[in-house]
């Protein structure tokens, strides 16, 4: 099995990860894709400065990809927090063998993309809509004061 450094040998990947993490960078997301249909090597496919919707547009229905996104949460500018989301994407038409390899390879990707609040494994773009991701992040953070009803 290839070492993480083999499948993630593109030096642009580490730089893009640092850019997404940095408040000084405009970059808010990155998408990694396989170099070819038969390759296990990943390459930096795209980066962007927009929101989740912009990142989601870079994910194809027949593709396997990994994405990393910076998301701002908060009720106002004073309570705003930055959280990071790791996405393991297997589009609905992704080949079965590629999907099978992804469970192992996502562990290798996590050796480079180490810091995130939630991981979302999906092939459904609806799960990557801002409201759904925000809800997952709030759940991961613990207290949720927006929720209807109470368990107290």
UniProtKB/TrEMBL annotation:
The keyword Cytoplasm applies. GO terms for molecular function: actin filament binding. Keywords: Actin-binding, Cytoplasm, Cytoskeleton. GO terms for cellular component: actin filament; cortical actin cytoskeleton; site of polarized growth. It comes from the Eukaryota. Residues 5-138 form the ADF-H domain. It is found in: Cytoplasm, Cytoskeleton. It holds the Pfam family Cofilin_ADF. One of its GO terms (biological process) is regulation of actin filament polymerization. Belongs to the actin-binding proteins ADF family. Coactosin subfamily. This is Actin depolymerizing protein.
